[in-house]
Amino acid sequence: MEYLNMPTFFKAKQFLEANNLNKNIVNDVENFICQWKFKSEYDLTAICEDLDNLIEVLQENFFGRTTDISIFNSIHCVVYNLLWDNLKPVVRANCTERDLRVYETSMTLCKNQNFLVEQNDSSYCSVPYTAAIVELSFWDSHNSPLEKLNCLCTTYDIIFAELKSALVNLISKYSDKELEIPVIDNEEIIPVITVVLIRSKLQYSVSNLYYIKQFGKQFLKDNNKQHIFETFEYAIQSLLKIDYKQLTSCSQDNFLNIDHLEAIKRITEINTNPNNGKHVTKAKVSLNEENQKRALELILQSTTADVNG
Fold first, then answer.
1. Cα separation of 201 and 106, whole Å?
2. H/E segment holding residue 273
3. How large is the average pLDDT for residues 295-304?
4. In this predicted model, what pLDDT tens digit does every residue of 12-28 receive, in sequence order?
């Protein structure tokens, strides 16, 4: 997935300068903003309306009645970067308590490298997701709603790339035959996103969501971006619901490092309960057990393919 219409501040400035005869356009935009009469400095709804009007006027003044979405996005990005120092305290003031709760929960969990929270229990969480964590760790440092949303979208793509890479490596470890990577649904990816959020140790995650939703709602009209935003929003809400007293630190099994016989053994343990030396089939297995079973069956499927081949 590409987000070419979601520029960084530097690229947005370059784009505006490249598409206008006025090479001092960024300075002129900044001067125009300084002269703009804002209705309020503290009412976020009024500020949002003001900024929408400001961006519309800037676009018409410097580029005429264009429908080029890249021009709108670039102006939007530049305006919010220039005003972020003024907006930041107002935006974050509404979310201070929840921001702190998410941050403290993350720090508490990260004290143990093998943390495991019951709500986030998933076999896919054993993948390191290093690149995704690095990408998301910059979320707080972006200044515009556009860049913050882009950060979520990029992180989301990286998570899937790292997970698929891990599954491919898992299969190739036991088989030289190509197997189709299973479809990973949203219920399975949310625990992974939650773990990435925790390991990123973000200080302003709730504020970031609020900022995007309040000041970047036009970008959420895109179904893909809205889906990604809502997935992260759900994961952060799940972190807010965690009770410190219920946090559990323990070692998490890494399904990427087990062999064929161990996979058979674990699937048997998942499917059955021991009863007087015999294994009785379980009436129901947990969601976590289903996730583990699915990953383990990948190993068996690939190994069996080799044996039968």
1. 6
2. strand 272-275
3. 54
4. 999 999 999 998 999 99
- Look at residue 103 and tell me whether its pLDDT is greater than 80: yes
Please state, for a pLDDT cut of 70, what percent of the chain lies above it.
Answer: 68
Task: Please write the tens of the pLDDT for every residue from 44-71.
Answer: 899 999 999 999 999 999 999 888 999 9
- Smallest CA-to-CA distance from 209 within 159, 136, 158, 157 is with 136
Mean pLDDT computed over every residue of the chain: 80
Looking at the chain, list the stretches that DSSP marks H as alpha helix, in order from N- to C-terminal side: 9-18, 25-35, 44-63, 69-93, 96-110, 130-136, 145-174, 186-200, 205-215, 223-240, 260-271, 287-308
Q: Which amino acid is at 132?
A: A
Angle at which helices 96-110 and 69-93 cross, to 10°: 90
Q: Is 155 exposed, middle or buried (0-12, 13-18, 19+ CB in 10 A)?
A: buried
CA contacts within 13 A on the Cβ side of 213: 13
Token duo for residue 306 = 């080799």
Are 62 and 32 a contacting pair, CB within 8 Å? Answer: no
pLDDT bin (cut points 50, 70, 90) of residue 163 is: confident
The DSSP symbol for 115 reads: B
Backbone angles phi, psi at 277, to 5 degrees: 85, -5
Q: What is the number of other CB atoms lying within 10 angstroms of the CB of residue 18?
A: 10
List the one residue out of 234, 254, 12 whose CA is nearest residue 125. Answer: 254
Instruction: Name the residue type at position 237.
Output: Q
Neighbours of 78 (CB within 10 A): 25
pTM of the shown model: 0.77
Is residue 174 within 8 Å of residue 302, measured between CB atoms? yes
The rounded radius of gyration (Å) of the Cα atoms in the chain is: 24
* Per-residue burial over 270-299, b = 16 or more CB atoms within 10 Å of its CB, e = otherwise: beeeeeeeeeeeeeeeeebbebbbebbebb
